[in-house]
Design goal:
The complex is a heterotrimer of chains A (about 270), B (about 280) and C (about 260).
Chain A (H helix, E strand, L loop, with lengths): L4 H38 L9 H14 L1 H32 L2 H17 L5 H8 L3 H26 L2 H9 L4 H39 L4 H10 L3 H32 L9
Chain B lengths: L1 H21 L1 H6 L2 H13 L11 H14 L1 H33 L1 H16 L6 H8 L3 H26 L2 H9 L4 H39 L4 H10 L3 H32 L12
Helix pairs in contact in B: 4-12, 5-6, 5-8, 5-10, 6-8, 7-8, 8-10, 9-10, 10-11, 10-12, 11-12
Chain C lengths: L3 E11 L6 E12 L4 E5 L6 H9 L6 E6 L2 E2 L7 E4 L11 H5 L1 H5 L4 H14 L15 H13 L5 E5 L7 H18 L3 E5 L2 H7 L2 E5 L4 E8 L8 H6 L1 H17 L11
Parallel strand pairs in C: 2-10, 3-8, 3-9, 6-7, 7-8
Antiparallel strand pairs in C: 1-2, 1-4, 4-5, 9-10
The chains are: A mainly alpha (about 270), B mainly alpha (about 280), C alpha/beta (about 260).
Chain lengths: ~270, ~280, ~260
């Protein structure tokens, strides 16, 4: 006899979950198999490309020596400081620009120019101004994110329907409270987009800046490995960089979106 | 009447301001005038030491000098050729691959998680292994640019195909279009705005990858020029490089990207799904 | 003295593309008494929304005056609450958050405003939905929330800009009946813009008819219907049908007929 539907439903949900997980991992397993077989058959040297278990050993070594945590830790710290500074400075600035038509018209072309340059192109100047070291790297991360967030926050405010402005004003909102009550929540979908784009740039800027300007961090260590043709370490680092980004996206940006933009039924602008 | 004349004057002013505001050249270049002026004043007043900060006059004369010596033109063309090769191969690979993944159930199922993962490995992180493979060569730079373009492009195309209204496909089918014709006449044009968005995202990253690659492994190119100048402590060349890069991107945007987007999106009155600054 | 007094209102604007001056509102004068429901009826594009926007303080007139309780209108103010056609609810605030918005802006203490909010949510039949977000409500419920949000602020006059134009026909009838019910219990002063003759007559004490652009007041018609009102009874009553027919003719006489430049399109 078939079980009653109320009992079967959680079961099917669980099995659907399992199935989704299964299908998520299958491509990675397939990739791993192709990798092992290809390296085995071509007999390519470690100097050119590592075997899968070499990479695993490299990660194990990095883990047990603690190098992994030093490098990941210093990179994450730099990204975090840069990102927080960028959010604190760019969101108010972008909203201010968006709430004034003339300011927006004036700054739009300047911002587009700056977005194109943001991040990596500033490395020579940043290291010249701030010297090699921590400050230059954080400056690059901040710089890479600042313009993308500012521009998107500005767009976000401009996209708030006129009726919402008017409703708030005719319900007695003083001008200075419009910022927190209307502009900030109204621009949030675009601010999140800006944050995502900006973090993408910031992350890349970080890796590049670490190569040039410091002696720790993921960017530094991956290029250090290149000097010694340690492809196992290089690939291990690449995997770590990818996983870190996925964690940032899933653990930080996605929940932020779920809790605000999606909850409010505002269309999330995805890049 | 006095009041009336005042009102009319205000109205005329409004019309004039609007015409000026609609002038593209004025709107885009106008804001740079006060910024350059400010820059000049700050430099002239020597707020910062001249080893760190030079004025527009110095940059301009150095710019002329670099052109006369032929350094800037040759570096610029090196950078542009790298970008062009990377973009060309990126499009050749990314567009067909994107449509295959978007249209085929199995291709999608088998590659989507991988796409997400490879997208997550920042392109710059590929530089070391690429150097190991190809040395400090043009191929290495091209490879990285291709990589940065292919993934955002594929992901954009998949979401673009998804956004083609199902009713359009049904309408075409019920009007007698074959599956192949549905693809060529409905899905491909419908996904074109997404292709445009993808190219813009990809170029945004590819551009940065180019600069990074030139800074890190370059022997020529604008990025190399800037970093070489930095090592020599020559701030003027760094300024020249940044301005050239900014102008270059602006030109690329105004002459190639924006017209392409306009021709696909605005002409068909399609709503842009993701208008994002990059 | 009337609660709302509009005198010789005139509005011109410049078409920024052609540079021509366009008259949106020709010459409009009328008043609304305390606790009166007045519909402003006119063909589409006649400038009735412009009049509302000027009264709300979103737009400024070229000449003429608007007074509310004897004070000249100067910018948006909570004494002139607006119910919008597009609802204009804050998507990031819950139902409760939307209702108490105006009270919060005025600095009403939390305990007090929760009591007021409950009262108005009950009035529009939204009790139990406090924690929902606007997008989780139906169109009809969203507009009821729009009404509650304005009334909770106790404005001198409630401005309504074709508030039921974007809900389906059945819901519209229901909302209209509910609005008369609310009006009959609370007696707010209402300025109601619409192009629907039935709606204008059913809801209002008086109907101000505007002519096509540039708009003037062509007539002010008093509606001879008893309150409380209901659709079933209204449709049966001869007075209702007469008023509707009269107004329909009035509007039809004002239609420009076949435009002269019809083949230019």
């Amino acid at each position: 006899m078939a079980p009653p539907p109320s009992v079967s439903r959680p079961g099917t949900r669980l099995s659907r979950r399992l199935k989704a997980t299964f299908w998520f991992f299958i491509p990675f397993v397939a990739l791993a198999v192709v990798w092992i077989i290809t390296v085995e058959m071509t007999g390519v040297a470690m100097r050119t490309f590592p075997q899968l278990n070499d990479v695993r050993d490299a990660i194990g070594d990095l883990w047990s020596t603690g190098d992994l945590f030093t490098h990941v830790g210093s990179s994450l710290r730099r990204v975090m400081i840069g990102a927080i500074l960028a959010v604190i400075t760019a969101v108010p600035f972008g909203i201010l620009l968006g709430s004034n038509r003339w300011a927006a018209a004036f700054f739009s072309p300047l911002l587009r120019f700056s977005v194109a340059l943001a991040g990596i192109a500033w490395i020579p100047l940043a290291t010249l101004w701030l010297g090699y070291g921590e400050r230059a790297v954080i400056f690059i991360v901040w710089n890479a994110m600042f313009f993308a967030i500012t521009y998107n926050a500005m767009l976000g405010v401009q996209r708030i329907p006129t009726e919402l402005w008017r409703a708030a004003r005719s319900l007695g909102t003083p001008r200075w409270r419009m910022f927190g009550e209307v502009f900030l929540p109204g621009a949030l979908p675009n601010v999140v987009t800006g944050l995502r784009v900006g973090l993408g740039y910031g992350w890349r800027g970080l890796v590049a800046a670490e190569v040039v300007a410091t002696s720790s961090g993921l960017g530094y260590s991956i290029f250090q490995a290149q000097q010694f043709y340690r492809t196992d370490v290089i690939v291990a680092m690449m995997v770590i960089i990818g996983v870190l980004w996925l964690i940032t996206d899933r653990a930080l940006l996605a929940p932020l979106e779920r809790r605000t933009v999606e909850r409010w039924g505002m269309k999330a602008v995805t890049a | 009447m006095m009041l009336d004349a005042k009102v009319r004057r205000a109205q005329r002013r409004q019309v004039w301001a609007h015409r000026l505001g609609r002038n593209r050249l004025f709107r885009t270049l106008g804001p740079f005038v006060p910024v350059v002026l400010l820059w000049w004043i700050v430099a002239e007043a020597e707020v910062f030491p001249s080893a760190f900060f030079v004025g527009p006059d110095v940059v301009l004369s150095e710019f002329g000098e670099l052109i006369r010596k032929g350094i800037l033109p040759s570096y610029l063309s090196d950078s542009l050729i790298r970008l062009r090769n990377g973009v060309l191969f990126g499009l050749l690979i990314g567009i067909p691959a994107g449509f295959v993944v978007a249209m085929s159930y199995w291709a999608r199922k088998l590659t989507w998680p991988l796409l997400m993962f490879f997208q997550a490995i920042a392109d710059i992180a590929w530089l070391p292994i690429v150097i190991v493979w190809f040395g400090h060569s043009l191929t290495a730079v091209t490879f990285v640019i291709v990589y940065t373009i292919v993934f955002p492009l594929m992901i954009s195309i998949v979401s673009g195909v998804e956004q083609v209204p199902r009713d359009l496909v049904r309408a075409a089918r019920s009007l007698g279009a074959s599956r192949f014709r549905v693809f060529t006449d409905v899905i491909a044009p419908g996904a074109l705005p997404a292709v445009a968005t993808g190219i813009r995202t990809g170029l945004g990253y590819g551009w940065r990858a180019l600069i990074a690659a030139e800074i890190i492994i370059g022997a020529s190119g604008i990025g190399f020029m800037m970093f070489d100048a930095r090592r020599a402590g020559d701030v003027t060349h760094v300024f020249v490089g940044m301005i050239v890069l900014g102008v270059l991107w602006y030109a690329l945007d105004a002459l190639i990207l924006a017209p392409f987007e306009r021709s696909t999106i605005q002409r068909w009155g399609m709503v842009r799904t993701a208008e994002v600054a990059r | 003295m009337s609660t709302l007094e509009i005198t010789n209102l005139h509005k011109e604007f410049v078409d920024v593309y052609t540079g021509e001056t366009v008259t949106a509102v020709g010459d409009v004068s009328f008043g609304i008494e305390q606790g009166e429901f007045v519909s402003i009826l006119g063909p589409s594009g006649c400038g009735k929304t412009t009049v509302l926007n000027i009264v709300a303080g979103f737009d400024t007139q070229t000449s003429g005056t608007v007074h509310v309780d004897g004070r000249a209108v100067d910018g948006p103010s909570p004494e002139r609450g607006v119910v919008f056609q597009s609802f204009a609810l804050f998507p990031w605030k819950t139902v409760l958050g939307n209702v108490i918005f105006g009270l919060r802006m005025r600095g009403v203490p939390r305990r007090e405003r929760d009591v007021i909010a409950q009262q108005y949510l009950q009035l529009v039949g939204l009790e139990g939905f406090e924690r929902k977000f606007p997008h989780e409500l139906s169109g009809g419920m969203q507009q009821r929330l729009g009404v509650a949000r304005v009334l909770a602020n106790e404005p001198a006059v409630m401005l309504m800009d074709e508030p039921f134009a974007s809900v389906d026909a059945q819901t519209r009838r229901k909302l209209q009946e509910e609005l008369t019910g609310i009006f009959e219990t609370k007696r707010p002063t209402v300025f109601f813009v619409t192009h629907d003759v039935d709606e204008a007559v059913f809801l209002a004490d008086r109907v101000v008819v505007l002519s096509a652009r540039p708009s003037r007041v062509s007539e002010i018609v008093t509606v001879p219907l008893e309150r409380p009102r209901q659709w079933r009874a209204a449709l049966d009553s001869a007075e209702f049908r007469h008023t509707v027919t009269y107004l329909t003719d009035l509007l039809a006489g004002d239609e420009p007929g076949v435009p002269a430049d019809v083949d230019r399109a």
